[in-house]
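Lab channel / #folding
Pinned by the channel admin:
"Please post every new chain as: sequence first, then the C-alpha cells as a reply. Keep commentary short and put observations after the output so the thread stays searchable."

First post following the new format, from NK:
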Amino acid sequence: MPTMVKPRALKPGSHIRITTPASPLTMEQIADGIKFLEQEGYKVSLGDHVFDKKFYLAGNDETRAADFMAAVRDPSIDCVMFSRGGYGCARLMPYLNLDEIVESGKQICGFSDVTTLHLALNKRGLVTLHTPMMITLSVERVDWVYESLRNILKGENPFVFNSTRAETLVPGSAEGVITGGCMCLMTDSFGTDYELDCKGKIVMIEDVDEQPHRVDAMLTNLLNNGQLQSAAGIVIGEMTGTDEMADEKIGSWPWREIINDRVKPLGIPSVVNFPFGHMKTMLSLPMGVAAKLDADAGRLELLESFTS
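Reply from TO:
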C-alpha cells in the first residue's frame, strides 16, 4: 500500500466546492446542506454542472468529471463534497486524473456510489472521507450525525457514539486499514484498476434497496473470490430497505439472517448494525487509515490521524 496522503483539515473560511458525480438533483435538495456548511463558517460554491440532467445521470460523463477536476485544480478550494450518489461515478474514471487528485491533498467527501472514488483514490494513495452528502442533509438527522460530520471536516475524531453500539456478530478484536463502503460498488470494482482488496483490512459493508437474494449474491461473490476470508475485521452497517424489497416469487430471507449465514462462519471479528452508510443515523469516517475494531464492544477506534 502506498504512503498515504492525508487531506488538510478545514478551518473557518475554508472553501467547499459541491459537485454532482452521479445522479441528478435539484437546488431544493441541497439547500439545507449548504446552509449547514455555511453555518459552520465555510465558504460554499457550486460546480458549473451540479444541476445538469441526462436520464439518470447529472449530465454527460465529461462535464461531471470536469466539474470534479476543476475543483481539484482550483487553489482556492479545500474540499470537494459531492451532492449525492445514485449512479454514475464509475463512468467518470476515464476522465479523472487520479494522481492529480491525490497530489492536491484536498478532502474528498461522500458515500454510496462515491464508494468507487474512495476505492480508486485510496488505492492511489489519498485518504478520503466517507460522509453524508448534500442530499443526505435534506432530511433532519439526530444531533450526533452533524457532530460527527463537523468533527471529520476539522480533522477531529468523528466517532461520537451517542447511539446504541453495533451488535457483536463474532467476538474479538482486529486492527487494519479501513476500506469498503456500498457493497454493490465493492463487487463492481473487481477486474478494474481500483478493485477492492480486503486482505488484512477492516472491511466496511452496507447497501440500500437491494433484494435479499442480491445481498446474498454479493456476499457470496466476496467469499468465492477469497476477499472476505482475508479481512482482519468486518463491520456491517445496514442493508437499508432490503427486507422490504423481497421478491416473494422466489421467497424471502431477512438480511440479518443472510449476514449470519455468510459472515459469521468465517470466525473473523465482526459487528452488524454499525451506524454508517444509508442508515438514518450515520457516522462519518475516514477511508484508508488504520483502525481497531473491538467487536465485543461494537466499537471502531482510529489508530492514526486522518488529516494533515
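NK: The chain has two domains: 15-140, 167-302.
TO: also worth noting, Residues 163 and 214 are 29 Å apart (CA to CA).
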